[in-house]
Amino acid sequence: MLQAIMTEPGKIVYQEVLIPEVGDNQIKVKMKIIGVCGSDVHVNHGKHPYTKYPVVQGHEVSAIVEEVGSSVTNVKVGDRVTIQPQVVCGECYPCTHGMYNDCEVLKVMGFQTTGMASEYFVVDAEKAIKLPEGMSYDHGAMIEPLAVAVHAVRRYGNIQGKSVLVLGGGPIGNLVAQTAKAMGAAKVMMSELSEYRLNTAEKCGIATVNPKEKDLKEAIINFFGVDGADVIFECIGINATMKQAIEYARKGSDIVVVGVFGDLATINMGFVQDHELRLIGTAMYRVEDYIEAIRLVGEGLIEFDSLITHRVPFSEYEKAYKIIDEQKDKAMKVLIEMD
Length: 339
Hints:
By secondary structure, the chain is an alpha/beta fold. Helix content is about 30%, strand content about 25%. Helix 3 crosses helix 4 (about 170-180) and helix 3 (about 135-155) packs across helix 9 (about 285-300).
């Protein structure tokens, strides 16, 4: 089978490799769609702190099952699936207390272990999550980033009836806003500088504000009232928006940190202490987040198509990164087509 390998930042080569034998508890899938995310871009730029080269990428995927091991019962040949990409120890405190997404020795396919950027992939069956028959492969590959959003919203708690501010309108910020709304938030507003991303959010039914054009604090009061937002989701991972979150948070409210910070954050801990703010971290997802994500899509509560902006054939994998680098905010979700 053909496999794409990033040998160094910005360089992908293809090589023929043998398809591994399928064990009793494993499945072989034929890859259909691979999504490119922000963490993949960090790897392409040589800025991911936990990835070494060479590396096979690919963790946002949809596929079809082509072979199952003798002990597999959760999926069958012909099923459409996505793959949960965490590799965990199952023995540390987080793993034994239902928090395997925080495993002490967590590895993620496409970063610290082999990803799915190949024509076929053999994986433990327990990692496969069955997709509804009617779900497209495009949408199937989007379930992983949606699961990130679902987990982030759940980290806050019961969102029903709450006022939600989302900072950042990239794919994850957009999906966090959509998820909060789908799970019952009373009011949701997104702050974003890019007009393209603001327009995309509006297509997805999300109210927006551009802080370049309108004072953000004033916009918060106008939209939510004098009490402001109940929770702020920081979905970019930069000092500027973290500063905004802390400065504009209502006293006694929550900030969920979704964005991945490439640089050390410098924040006003005096505000955090004096205003009794809660900073809540969120990392990846668990299987229940995938299941909830699939439910939300099945009920028509999530808009994916507006986020899919570009498609690239598997044979031109590097082109995906070129598109993202050159078009920046207009490249929301780039999909790698395997067929």
